[in-house]
Each structure stands twice: as C-alpha cells, then as structure tokens.
Specification:
Helix content is about 30%, strand content about 25%. By secondary structure, the chain is α/β, with parallel strands linked by helices. It has 2 domains: about 5-55 and about 390-400 and about 425-445, Urease, subunit C, domain 1; about 55-380, Metal-dependent hydrolases (TIM Barrel). The strands form 4 sheets. The chain has an 8-stranded parallel sheet. The chain has a 7-stranded mixed sheet with strand order 3-2-7-18-19-20-21. Strand 20 (about 435-440) and strand 21 form a beta hairpin. Helix 4 (about 165-180) crosses helix 7 (about 215-235) and helix 7 runs parallel beside helix 8. Bound molecules: N-(aminocarbonyl)-beta-alanine and zinc ion (2 copies). N-(aminocarbonyl)-beta-alanine binds next to loops.
C-alpha cells in the first residue's frame, strides 16, 4: 500500500529539513514540502509525523543469528532476531557466516542463507567467514562473491576454532583485493590470549572478571597492527569489527596514514557498558562477557570521541545472544567456557539515540551516518542508508519524546536476560517500514515474516 508521511523532520547523514515523503512500489517516489493526499494513489496510508524525525532504516552490519559457537548455539532465529531488529528501527542486517574449519564454505553459505530466506522480516546480507583457505575453499569464495555476498570475515582470535593463520590471512586478503571485496576482521592476537588464559586459570582466577585481563587492550591493538601490515602489503580494503579501545583505534589510524584502506566499527556494548559490569558478583558478570571484552570507562569515552570525530565509521551490535541460565553458566568453573556475546540487536538504535544524541555526545547526522549510511556505503547496499527519491522505502518515523525502559520481560530477542535491564530510553520508533511495508508500530511488530530479502551487492 502506498504511504504518505506528512511533516517529519527528515534527517540524513548530511541533511536536516522538513518535508512530506511519498512511497510507492517499495521506493521513495516523492519528497516535497507539501504533498496533497489527493495527488496520491487511491488507498494511500497517511502517517502524521509532526514533531517526529524521519530517519533512513538503520543497518546493523555485524550480527550473529545462527551461530554454532563455544559448544552451543546462539539463541535467536531469523524469526526472532529480525522482528526484534525491526521493532528497534533496524531494517537491514548483515550476518556473519561462521563455518567450522572443516566445513565446506559453499555449504555453509547455503545453510546460513536457508535460515534467513523466506523467514526474515528485514532485508539482509552476509559476510562470508573464511575459517580455512585452500584451493577448494578459494573456489567456493569466488562463487559466493558471484552470488552477491561481497565481503569476507576473518578471525585473528579464537585459536583452534575459527581463527586463521598468517598464510590464510595473506591469501584471503589477496583474493579480496583481486575480487574487489571488503575483509572484515576480528583483531586480537590469539596466541597471547590463549597463553594468558592458561596462566589465569592455573592461578585459580576463573571468574568472568578475568575475561578482560585475559585479552588486554594491547593484545587487541597488536591484532589491528597485524591486520594493517597484511592489508598494506596486499592492498586489500579492510574493516575492523568491534574495536573496543583507544590503542586499537590508534593502530588503525597508523595503518590508514600508511595508505591502508580501512574502516573502523565500534559496537554498542563498548560504548554504553564498561568492564565493571563483567566484574559484578555472583556470576552475574557472565552476562557481559564478549570479545574483545568490555573495557574501562576511559576507553569507552575514547570510543565516543572517535565516533564523534568520525574516525569510527559505524556502530553495529555484534549481537550474539546466549541465555544466562543454561548457556553463560557453562563457564561457572572457567571464564574461558562462557559463550561470548551480548544480545543487543533490538536496543542499538534506541540506546545510541539515548546515550549519544539525547545525551549530547553525537549529533543527529553522526547518528544516522554511523547507524545506517556508512554501512550502506562500505558494504555496497544499494538503495539503503538514506532518504532520497529512488531509495528503498526503508524508513523510521522516530518519536524523541517517548520514554520507557528496557526489560527481558518485554523484549523480542530470545534471551532470558537483557544486558540493559531497567535502562531508560529517550526515544523509540513509532513506525518502521521495509521497502514500503509497515513492519512495526510503537514497539509492536505488525509486519510479515518472510518479507525480507537478500540485498544484492556488487564488488568495488
Ligand atoms: O563476543 C563475541 N564477540 N561473540 C561473537 C563472536 C565474535 O567474536 O564476533
Ligand atoms: Zn568477533
Ligand atoms: Zn561478531
């Protein structure tokens, strides 16, 4: 059904103005100061957005939904995660495909795709995880890129599980350069993490509060330095995921100064939480175990500053949902067994608005750029990330006057806890559309599962 959105304040990465927006056949077809409803198609739905913002649909370029990891599986499905994303204002997700080292990449791609296709309510794409690089895997990666998945993911962490060695890293980057695809990378030195973990456990330091000391900022910075060195030699374009600390950003800046084409991502937990949450008594800290770990307040503040100065391009979530009662508790005897991850796909936009825009840390344009536009540009999501004639009608009518609180009792993610239980929100989407279909209203999912589709992406 065509849509006419009257009177919103339209905010893009660069513009701020008031106009009416008309959408027909999945796209925005008119933006004018005053669109007469009589000039619109019969049956047009009218949305009064006076006093509200109109943002482009938000994009989360780093989520895990189907994730076999650390001896268990992440809790969400595309049904639950895409509903949660949409209610929270996110209209496109990019999921990490994380095959086991022995798995066939093309089969993994098909497995991950089958879980999303026909189920997801929001649009989606993937980063193809490279956990092994050999001639057969290379043939598969070429085919996957041909099918429109034009970014890879490598782990320099998770020794013996998902991590690649230097030869594999080198050849992945070379292939990426040849094909014109971006390589996203989890940067931590896996050997240093592994050795420090063993030392801590041997000293009976087994609680979640030892997760951060097992992988300190300089170990992450070394991972970034390592990636930058390989990117410099191969000329590949790289994207550093979940950068948590100033030291890591500085290594990235150093690489960029040396000519590396690199982008920096921060994830919501590293902005709004800090390591004191993982130090909470009674094993409660396990809810806050992710990698790289939550850092001290000074690093969180530094990441806000890097976001404000646009040194950091994107804010994602690294949504990796595990239950507290049955999954995080697998690590009661050793923090190394706590499944890593913090669920947040539903909360990213509202918490970034509340703690970023409403708190005066970032302006509205930086908010839109970091949570939508930059991801569309970096990952080639054509038609996404802006409000313009011809763009996909992925839109968020946002009410900055909404006040409410987050709770696991009401969230749509499938985890039994929220890392943000009781936190106040200052703002929420009133209406969310995906290619012109209304999918959420005032915190309720009202759309159709299966509406989402794989967004075709091209190479550079
Ligand atoms: O703790 C995290 N980040 N869990 C998900 C896997 C990853 O490293 O992205
Ligand atoms: Zn990671
Ligand atoms: Zn991740």
């Amino acid at each position: 059904m065509p849509l006419l959105i009257k009177n919103p304040r339209i905010i893009t990465a660069t513009d701020d103005y008031t106009a009416d927006v008309y959408c027909e056949s999945e796209t925005i077809t008119r933006i004018e100061r005053n669109i007469d409803p009589a000039s619109c198609a019969k049956g047009t739905e009218l949305i009064d957005a006076s006093g509200k913002y109109l943002f482009p649909g938000f994009i989360d370029p780093h989520v895990h939904i189907y994730l076999p990891f650390m001896g268990t599986f992440a809790k969400d499905t595309w049904e639950s995660a895409s509903r949660a994303a949409i209610v929270g204002g996110t209209t496109t997700l990019i999921e990490m495909i994380c095959p086991g080292k022995a798995d066939s990449p093309i089969e993994a791609f098909e497995t991950w795709l089958a879980k999303a296709r026909g189920v997801s309510a929001c649009d989606f794409s993937f980063h193809m995880g490279v956990t092994r690089f050999d001639p057969q895997a290379e043939r598969d990666f070429r085919e996957i890129v041909r099918r429109g998945v034009t970014s890879f993911k490598v782990f320099l962490a998770y020794k013996g599980a998902l991590g690649v060695d230097d030869r594999e890293l080198y050849h992945t980057l070379r292939l990426a350069k040849e094909l014109g695809v971006v390589v996203t990378a989890h940067c931590e030195n896996e050997t240093l993490v592994d050795e420090r973990q063993k030392e801590l456990l041997a000293a009976a330091k087994t609680g979640p509060e030892y997760h951060e000391p097992s992988r300190p900022p300089y170990v992450e910075a070394e991972g970034v330095h390592h990636l930058m060195t390989f990117a410099r030699q191969t000329g590949a374009e790289v994207y550093i995921v979940h950068t948590s600390c100033d030291a890591a950003v500085r290594e990235a800046q150093c690489g960029i100064a040396n000519g590396v084409n690199a982008h920096i991502e921060v994830v919501l937990p590293h902005l709004v939480l800090d390591k004191t949450y993982a130090e909470r008594p009674g094993f409660e800290g396990a809810k806050y175990v992710m990698s790289p770990p939550l850092r001290g307040r000074a690093d969180a503040d530094a990441m806000w500053n890097h976001l404000r100065s646009r040194t950091v391009s994107t804010v994602a979530t690294d949504h990796a949902p595990f239950d507290f009662e049955t999954q995080k508790t697998m690590g009661r005897q050793a923090f190394t067994k706590i499944p890593n991850g913090i669920p947040s796909v539903e909360d990213r936009v509202n918490l970034l608005y509340t703690h970023g825009v409403a708190a005066g840390r970032i302006d509205l344009h930086t908010f839109v750029a970091a949570a939508s536009t930059k991801a569309a540009q970096i990952f080639g999501l054509k038609g996404k990330g802006t409000v313009a004639v011809g763009a996909d009608a992925d839109l968020v009518v946002y009410d900055p006057n909404y006040r409410g609180t987050i709770s696991a009792k009401t969230h749509l993610m499938q985890t039994d806890y929220s890392a943000f239980e009781g936190w106040e929100l200052k703002g929420r989407p009133s209406v969310v559309t995906v290619r012109g279909q209304i999918m959420a209203r005032d915190g309720k999912f009202v759309g159709k599962l299966g509406h989402g589709r794989l967004v075709p992406r091209t190479t550079r």
